[in-house]
Amino acid sequence: MGEDMKDMVKAHCYCCDKDVLILILCRKMMNTKIQGLNIMHDGIVAFCSECHGKVYSKEVDDKNIEEAQKEYDYEVDRWNRLKEGNDTNEGNKI
Ligand SMILES: [Zn+2]
Questions:
Q1: How many domains does the chain have?
Q2: Is residue 1 part of a domain?
Q3: Per-residue DSSP letters for 49-85?
Q4: Measured in angstroms, how far is the CA atom of residue 80 from the centroid of ligand 1?
Q5: Cβ atoms 43, 30 nearer than 8 A
Q6: How far is the centre of ligand 1, averaged over its atoms, from the C-alpha of 43 (Å)?
Q7: Whole domain around residue 69: which residue ranges?
Q8: Model pTM?
Q9: Neighbours of ion ligand 1 (CB under 5 A)
């Protein structure tokens, strides 16, 4: 439990032309555009366990969108606070 590779899911690999187990091999910075904002966030990429080609997986895609959304919310929150006043109110957290 708790290992990164535990949740291996199946996805369709067009290269192998069948459903294969996917490997979550990479965690890298990704760039997703939300509401016209470029959001940098951690992302995962799924690879076919047999031919090692990149495969599309809805679960992986959902996770990346979730991460992007979290970063987006954080950025919007930060911007709103910057707009309200240029000084940082360190002791004044909501
Ligand atoms: Zn494959």
A1: 1
A2: no
A3: TTT--B---HHHHHHHHHHHHHHHHHHHHHHHHHHH-
A4: 45
A5: yes
A6: 21
A7: 10-83
A8: 0.69
A9: 13, 15-16, 48, 50-51
